[in-house]
Amino acid sequence: MDHITVRHIVEAVSGTLLCGDADTELKHISIDSRSMRGADLFVPLIGEKSDAHRFLVQAMDNGAAAALTSEHEAAPEGFHGALIQVKDTKLALQTIGRCLRARLSIPLVGITGSVGKTTTREMVAAALSAKYKTFKTPANHNSQIGVPLTISEISENDEIGVLELGMSEPGEMAVIAEIAAVDSAVMTNIGVTHIENLGSRENILKEKLHIQDGMKAGGILFVNGDNDMLSTVHAKAGCHTVRYGLGADNDYRAEDLSYPDGFPSFTMVHGEVRVPVKLTVMGEHNVMNALAALAVADAYGVPLADAAEKLLEFGGFKNRQQIYHKNGYTIVDDTYNASPDSMKAAIGVLSSLPAGRRIAVLADMKELGENTIQFHREVGAFLAEKPVDILVVYGELAQSIAEGAKRVKPDLHIVSFEEDEKEDMLDWLDAQIGEGDAVLFKGSNSMKLGETASRFISVEKTPTSSGGK
C-alpha cells in the first residue's frame, strides 16, 4: 500500500479508532500474527476452529502498526499501536480491498477457470512483462480473503496487474469480482473441480462468469474456444469476446504444433500475423495457456514477438509438472492438486517423455461430487490408451482409476495401495524405479503425494536398470 494511513482505513470501514495515532502510515496487510514486514495492518479473522483476536498483542509485538477488532471496546492489556473497531473483520478486509482498488489507475487482468489458473496467470504476467512492470498474484491469494491482500500489495510503480480469482462455492466469485473490478478477464476452461459444492458444470460456468461483474464497458473476456462450455460464451453487454485455442475458428490459434525434445513449438496465428513460439513447459494444455497469454499481451499493445520471447523464460514452479532428472531416471512432480482434466494433461506429459518405462503414480481426486467414481474411471480409461507401462494407484478413490484402466487394457501392469499403505508404496517404488524410467506423481493435495515425489527428487541412489533391485 502506498500513502495509506490509519485514518484512511478508519474512514474506509466506517470504524472507530479506539487508540493510537490516526496518521500512522501503513504499508502492508497481514492476517498472520506471526508474519509482519513493518507498518502492517493486522486483520484478525474468525474461523471455524480459531479466533485470531487472541493474537492481537502478539501481532503488535511482531511489528504490526495497527489492527482491526470486532471483539473489543477498548485495547486489551499489553496492546500498543492503533486499534480500529469494526463490526466484522472479514467484511472490513473486503471493504479495504475495494477502496484500495478504487485508488488504482492501472489495468487489472483477472484469471479464472477450473484448472490452469496459476500457470496461465504466470504466463500472462510473463508476456505482459515484455512491455510493462507487471504485478501478479503472490502465492495462491485468490479467495475472498486473498484478493484484498493481493490488491494491497500493488505499488505505485506497477503498470499492470494480473490477478488470479478462484472460487469453490456459490456466490464467492461475485464477491471477489466486485473487489477486483478487473478490466479484462481470462477463462481457461470449465471442468468439474469443486462440482461437489456447485452441483454441475453449468453452475460452475454461471459462477465463473461473475468475474465480469466489476468489468467496465469496453472490457475483454478471453475464453478458451476449444472448451465445450466456453465455445459459445459471450462477454456481457458492452464488453468484447476474444477466443483462443487450437481450433480454426479461434481469434488466436496455434498451427504447426510439434514437440521437439518434448517441449511445445508452434506458430501463433492471429489474422495475418504469424509468430513462432517455443515453450520450456510441457503439454498441449500449456499451448492453450500460452495462447491466452499472447492474446492478452496483444490486447495491451505488447509486441507479440517480444511476448513470445518472454514465454520462453517461463519454466513452471514447484509441484506443478516440474520435471527432475535424478539418479538416471525422470520425475514429474505434479502433486499440487488434481482434477480429471489436469490428470489427463499430466498423463499426456508423461507419455511425451522419452523413457525406458513410463510409470504413473496416481492418487485420489477430491471434491468431485456424486460422479467421483466415474470421473476416476475415465482417467483410468484415458491412461490405458497412452504409452504408460505401469499404473500405481494410491487411495480409496484411486482404485477406480485402476478399474477404468483395466477395462480398456486388461494386461496393463497395475499396483494398488490404500491410503494407510504409504510406506509400502514407497518401498515398492524404491525397489522398482530404475535408470531410464520416467515417473509421474499426481493427486489431490490432501493426499500428500508431494512428500513421496520429494523422496525420489532429493535422495541420491545408485542407478539401477529398470525393474529395480
TrEMBL record:
Protein name in the entry: UDP-N-acetylmuramoyl-tripeptide--D-alanyl-D-alanine ligase
Gene Ontology annotations for the cellular component aspect, listed alphabetically: cytoplasm
UniProtKB keywords: ATP-binding, Cell cycle, Cell division, Cell shape, Cell wall biogenesis/degradation, Cytoplasm, Ligase, Nucleotide-binding, Peptidoglycan synthesis
PANTHER family reported for this sequence: UDP-N-ACETYLMURAMOYL-TRIPEPTIDE--D-ALANYL-D-ALANINE LIGASE (PTHR43024:SF1)
Known EC number: 6.3.2.10
Lineage: Bacteria, Bacillati, Bacillota, Clostridia, Eubacteriales
InterPro entries: Mur-like_cat_sf, Mur_ligase_C, Mur_ligase_C_dom_sf, Mur_ligase_cen, Mur_ligase_N, MurCDEF_CellWall_CoF430Synth, MurE/MurF_N, UDP-N-AcMur_synth
Family (UniProt): Belongs to the MurCDEF family. MurF subfamily.
GO terms, molecular function: ATP binding; UDP-N-acetylmuramoyl-tripeptide-D-alanyl-D-alanine ligase activity; UDP-N-acetylmuramoylalanyl-D-glutamyl-2,6-diaminopimelate-D-alanyl-D-alanine ligase activity
Species of provenance: Clostridium fessum
Domain (Mur ligase C-terminal) ranges: 320-444
Primary role: Involved in cell wall formation. Catalyzes the final step in the synthesis of UDP-N-acetylmuramoyl-pentapeptide, the precursor of murein.
Domain spans labelled Mur ligase central: 111-297
Pfam families assigned: Mur_ligase (PF01225), Mur_ligase_C (PF02875), Mur_ligase_M (PF08245)
Pathway: Cell wall biogenesis; peptidoglycan biosynthesis
Cellular location(s): Cytoplasm
Residues noted as binding ATP in the record, renumbered to the chain: 113-119
Extent of the signal sequence: none
Enzyme class: ligase
Domain Mur ligase N-terminal catalytic: 26-91
Gene Ontology terms describing biological process: cell division; cell wall organization; peptidoglycan biosynthetic process; regulation of cell shape
Reaction catalysis annotation: D-alanyl-D-alanine + UDP-N-acetyl-alpha-D-muramoyl-L-alanyl-gamma-D-glutamyl-meso-2,6-diaminopimelate + ATP = UDP-N-acetyl-alpha-D-muramoyl-L-alanyl-gamma-D-glutamyl-meso-2,6-diaminopimeloyl-D-alanyl-D-alanine + ADP + phosphate + H(+)
HAMAP family: MurF
